[in-house]
Amino acid sequence: xxxLPKRIEAPPAPQGRGNLDDPQEELVxxxxxxxxxxxxxxxxxxxxHDMTMRQILREAFELWKQAKGEQR
Length: 72
Description:
The protein is mainly alpha-helical. Helices cover about 40% and strands about 0% of the residues.
């Protein structure tokens, strides 16, 4: 497995179509199971950085797409 750089800057939020923060778009549930220790660490990271868990998920997903070379 290829190693990712230690620090990747988050890309700017997309404008217009496809924007994950579009206030016009309805929010829906996204459900998956994680270990108790992961959940605790994830929640603590959100608190430590004054972010919501949703913000961390969005940023992580954008960074993942950038690392994989996806533009959408």
